[in-house]
Amino acid sequence: MSQFARSPITAVLGPTNTGKTHLAVERMCGHASGMIGFPLRLLAREVYDRVVKMKGVENVGLITGEEKILPPKARWFLCTAESMPLEREVAFVALDEAQLGADPERGHVFTDRLLRARGFAETMILGSESLKPMLKALVPDAEVIGRPRFSTLSYAGAKKLSRLPRRSAIVAFSAEEVYAVAEALRRLRGGAAVVMGALSPRTRNAQVAMFQAGEVDYLVATDAIGMGLNMDVAHVAFASLNKFDGRRQRRLTVAEMAQIAGRAGRHQRDGTFGALSEEGPSAFTPEEVLAIEGHQVPRLEHLFWRQGEPDYSSIDALVASLEARPEAEVLRAAPQAVDLAVLKRLAEEDWVRARVRSPRMVARLWAACGLPDFRKLGVDPHARFVGRVFGHISEGNGHLPHQWFADELQRLDHMGGDVEVLAGRIAAARSWAYIAHRPDWLQDPIHWAERTRAVEEKLSDALHASLTQRFVDRRTTVLLRQIGADASDLPVTIGPQGEVSVEDHPLGQLTGFRFSVASDARATDKRMLLAAAEKRLAGEFRKRGTALAEAADAELSLSPVRAELVEAPASSTKSAEGENGPSTSSGRTVFWGNVRVAELKPGASIARSKIVLDRALDVLEPPVRIAVQARLEQWFAAQLTRHLPVFAALDAMLRDAQAGAPLRALAHALLEAGALMPRRAAAHLVEALDGDARKRLRKIGIAIGTLDLFAPALLKPGAARWRRELMGLAEAPRDGATVLARGAPGAELVHGFRPLGPQAVRVDLVERIARAAHDSRQGRKPFAPDPALATSIGVKPETLARLMAQLGFRTAKAPEGETPRWIWQGLTPVAKPKAPPSNNAFAALASLRNG
Q1: 49 FRET partner, CA 20 to 30 A, in 15, 56, 325, 387?
Q2: How confident is the model over 148-191, as pLDDT tens digits?
Q3: pTM above 0.70, yes or no
Q4: Across-strand partners of 193?
Q5: DSSP for 761-825?
Q6: Residues 6+ apart with CB under 8 A from 619
Q7: Do 111 and 305 contact (CB within 8 A), yes or no?
Q8: What is the model's pLDDT at position 569?
């Protein structure tokens, strides 16, 4: 288009929201033909849709790397800067965001279009005020027109995510950061739309449509929104002020900050900007704020340049021309881009050089190297992919194999996976879409372009659905919009199974006295939903508390009621398993039906355990809580007297000053052990008991056995169950069992079963066998005990032998074939505790005090 260099050139410069793009579209549509180059595929698509409404779909074309819509009669073209067909003659040409010529990665493309793209009737250059010195140096005949911003842009300070105003856009600079911010907004404010340059136009449009329609009030985006994407944003918040530019992590320039912040406000509506951090590297400096508010961006000192019409005579000539130095002082040689790096890598391959022997093949190789690295693989993997593509288009009929293309596309045609997986498939699909839109790389490019478009659209829809599912909580969004300042005004209903909802939106489950917010609600949602339900639930809690204070003894227990066998108490709800469900271990927890209402905390003794109401009952009013506390204490005392009277008797003995120190000490030890302990553990206390003390123990039901101290009444199933629950014992022996196999549930002394070899025998039966053995012996003469008792109980011979040994008997020789004989030798005496040494400082102090 250089032959039209004398056509009028107008440079329209100014900040965002000055109507520059709108002006260019209006000027283009006033000509018989035209073309505009944009920095983003998304922006080209957005303007294409606008022009189609004005000129009709048959007259408008869209040209991007991955998408081409070229009706035969098309006269107006919307393109990405890289895809502008400079060989096409049109009346009007415009280049948007021309200041991107200073971008190290893509700047050379914009500089080339700035210098070479011309319309034969009119040319327009759009950009920032910072571009003005470059225009004077490179396009001196351009008429520069400044345009003021339509609305005011002002700094609103730093605000946390939870305090951002509605209609805010939060800008981050990596996909990970975008997802993290969107996830936080879902928890805090019900959700957000997501916009990134890597999204397909279909996904981006669907996300923006949610924001524009008010389905969500927040938008999380990369700096792609700074390139002219028009949305109703009132406030722009920067999650960070640093970005990775492909080479290093750096702070945004003031021009970049201003470009992004300028998206706030539209037409005559003012906008604000700010950060999420008040201090640190993610906070604005006063100088930056002043420059952005005043639209005072630093002037550009140079643009990047690379030969736009390279030499195709050979590979080496092509590389040399692409690395040529610019002549103009304000131009700098562009850093090596991916396409040039791939070209150099392939130029090292002998097979490539063997095929590239003509300018046509050099141009074909360079076209293959222009395949963008959409998947961000890096130079080496991308060079291998490009090499495979070039290998096919440089042989035979110059077309990629149909089967390879079909297989790769089929591999991408799957809609499963999370956001990252779907985004990765779309990136891969963009590579094949780019290939399909090359007119001479496939045998049937139109067919494959349709196929790739269909796959990308399906993936885009799936990605939109996945983004919405992950980052939008429609229930919370609706509730936030409804409750306004007073959550108590919401109509809360409670279903028959305790399900709590506001209108048609489920909030959670009411189990007993605990309201559990729905599992898909996040931490901040819980606070909001609890506030919404608080007013309605107060009356329900009062009703349930009153019912608990009047509950019958049968409704209370130390274990949860099995829901399939017993109905829950009136006004209570069958609990779901989990936080409010049945306890996985028995004992020390008081249940009302299957609702946990209190804990038994340690008191002066196990018989005086304290009833501590569950924290869920904090929702009750004080009078109701007092009534519930009194009812549970009354119930516990009654159950203790009914099922475990020996505990109460031992507790009274412990506090009886007339009982004597040995008896009180033994009562304390028995209470600690649940009224069942080995005799050897308290041997010295037992030996210190006089006859009256022993008589008192027998009177309250404590047996002093040969091997164990125990209360026979506690071995009965009902009392054993209560003792087990009160002591918090998880395992339980079989009801009514006399002998258990070693290792069976409950085969331990704490449950009343003494382990003896392969079996465990109930302690009262151990005592019966012991008495029978002593009744059968005559002094220390060998004797053979009657085995009938042990056999009737179910005790095996080896178990009996182990028991006899523990009882103080040893085996004696017996005639072969006769019953084994035993000799009494007495129990092994328990060693007396050693007296404390008398030659230390504490002993000396004691002697002084006693003297």
Answers
A1: 15
A2: 888 899 999 999 888 899 899 999 988 889 988 998 888 777 78
A3: no
A4: 219
A5: EEHHHHHHHHHHHHHH--TTS-B---THHHHHHT--HHHHHHHHHHTTEEEE---TTSPPEEEE-
A6: 513, 537, 538, 541
A7: yes
A8: 39
